[in-house]
Automatic annotation (TrEMBL):
Subcellular location field: Nucleus
Keywords: Cell cycle, Cell division, Cyclin, Nucleus, Phosphoprotein
Family: Belongs to the cyclin family. Cyclin E subfamily.
Residue ranges of domain Cyclin C-terminal in the record: 26-148
Matches recorded under Pfam families: Cyclin_C
Taxonomic lineage: Eukaryota, Metazoa, Chordata, Craniata, Vertebrata
Keyword Phosphoprotein in record: yes
Record-linked SUPFAM superfamilies: Cyclin-like
GO biological process, one term: cell division
Protein name (Swiss-Prot/TrEMBL): G1/S-specific cyclin-E2
GO CC annotation terms, alphabetical: nucleus
SMART domains registered for this protein in UniProt: Cyclin_C
Amino acid sequence: MSPWSFIHLKEENVKTQALKWELCPVTVISWLHLFLQVDALKDAPKVLLPQYSQESFIHIAQLLDLCILAIDSLEFQYRILAAAALCHFTSIEVVKKASGLEWDNISECVDWMVPFVRVVKSASPVKLKTFKKIPVEDRHNIQTHTNYLAMLDEVSYVNSFRKGGQLSPVCNGGIMTPPKSTEKPPGKH
């Protein structure tokens, strides 16, 4: 270990001890909380109380939880991932208002997220649960079990069709039909 690395580690240790190890990293879910709160905010004194739909939050959070399992998600900042997920469930106008981000900032992520959105929207919606010791206004913060690995496999399957295109015969209600002539490779008509 170089002397500079040792000094850097020592400085970090001093900082974390001064903070009593009470660090609060800004996660993708933190960005989602912020964006939903800014969009829903109507009364300034109640800024610390969630004023957004808990059902919307858990549905978008499920999408983000699935997305961050994919290694490709590391290509995007957390705020971009949260804004893109919000865009899939609301509109670009809501995203602009809540995040200050423009379409150009999030369009690549919105496009990347499409197979994840298809899988999440096709799954049974996550239900809010009530727990004895959890206040009703905090129940959206309780993460419940979802089989994300199976969903991630489904994303890979959906993505394989999205990237490769559909050149093989298509099944319409049990009847096999050839691809449209516009889908056939050039020179094979």
